[in-house]
Amino acid sequence: MEYITSTLGNLLQQTAFLNLTGGNLIMIGVACVFLYLAIKKGFEPLLLVPIAFGMLLVNIYPDIMEEGGLLHYFFLLDEWSILPSLIFMGVGAMTDFGPLIANPKSFLLGAAAQFGIYSAYFLAIFMGFNDKAAAAISIIGGADGPTSIFLAGKLGQTGLMGPIAVAAYSYMALVPIIQPPIMKMLTTKKERCIKMEQLRPVSKLEKILFPIIVTVVVCMILPTTAPLVGMLMLGNLFKESGVVGQLAETASNALMYIVVILLGTSVGATTSAEAFLNLDTIKIVILGLVAFAVGTAAGVLFGKLMCKMTGGKVNPLIGSAGVSAVPMAARVSQKVGAEADPTNFLLMHAMGPNVAGVIGTAVAAGTFMAIFGVK
User: Which of 198, 196, 286, 209 has the alpha carbon at shortest distance from 241?
Assistant: First the structure.
């Protein structure tokens, strides 16, 4: 009888029930909310499902993130910047850069939307973060999860990587909710109804040369951008060259989804109650929202300026796509424009600033790395 009692006691001690804290229960609830938003509401399920499940796992079994635990080794790939770079290669292989090539002025809209990043940097310093932490946090303004993780790892801010990544991916998922009110507030009905001229056809040669030229120019000026910009352009070259279809298919499908699983679950597993439930996390979430809102507003306002300068040929709504949530932000520009005029088609025009925003966010990350002397 004593043996049975001892055995049952040992088994009870090994369960998670006796070790759960109030914070763990809160984080388990947050994980369930994320799963609900992903599965029921369809908010970026490819991102939120693995993130939420990693969050669930680590708050039930913390050892899964300790050395020797499964997700610890996944997370090392984040710290070493391997997974974010591979994500960029997949994005490049999936994305048509034609709209940006056809309308190079889109680069200006992508650049304008990065204003949210730099404004958040100074605001984060004002709120008490050190300069490297502020830089890592500010990238949330680009609505770019992989770049946020990449920069946090490069700047040694792994302690903040969980809140930063969760905030970045959450705002990526909430683009259709956050952006439209800002876009409508800053534009008139007449501006939202502007129809833009059809983009010119882009030749195959232009599409092949573009990733090569961008890589040379950007990486010569800012070599620190090579892991992100280089992989983005390599993926696109796979797609446009037409001679490595198998590589393009692998990069944009199988490899991309494998990386999303590893990155998502490992990022979610950084959100243990001890690491996540603190004042810094609240500050990061607020700063991320401010940065994202400012970036969206800056893109729209610069779009209004271009509208005036071109005599009404540019719909300001495409400026909001300057954040790098591809292709969600471009779809939101299309949706808001179609609400004003169902015959208006802005998607391809918005893809130009959207792709420029991806490059712009990577350049912003490379700039911070150069400032702090990080390679």
Answer: 209
User: Over its length of 375 residues, how does the chain's per-residue pLDDT go in tens digits?
Assistant: 666 777 666 666 667 677 788 899 999 999 999 899 889 988 778 888 999 999 999 999 888 988 888 898 998 898 888 999 999 999 999 999 999 999 999 999 999 989 999 999 999 999 999 999 999 999 988 777 889 899 998 998 888 888 888 888 878 878 888 999 999 999 999 999 999 999 999 999 999 999 999 999 999 999 999 999 999 999 999 999 999 999 999 999 999 999 999 999 998 998 888 888 888 988 998 998 888 899 999 999 999 999 999 999 999 999 999 987 888 899 999 999 999 999 999 999 999 999 999 999 999 999 999 999 888
Q: Does residue 113 contact residue 353 with C-beta atoms inside 8 Å?
A: yes
CA gap 192, 183 in Å, rounded: 9
Cβ atoms of 266 and 79 closer than 8 Å: no
Report the alpha-carbon distance of residue 283 to residue 130 in Å, rounded.
Answer: 13
Q: Tell me which residue of 43, 45, 64 sits closest to 55, measured CA to CA.
A: 64
Number of H helices, E strands in the chain: 21, 0
64: amino acid identity, one letter = I
Q: Assess whether the previous peptide bond of 99 is cis (omega < 30° from 0).
A: no
Q: Enter the tokens of residue 76.
A: 């090392």
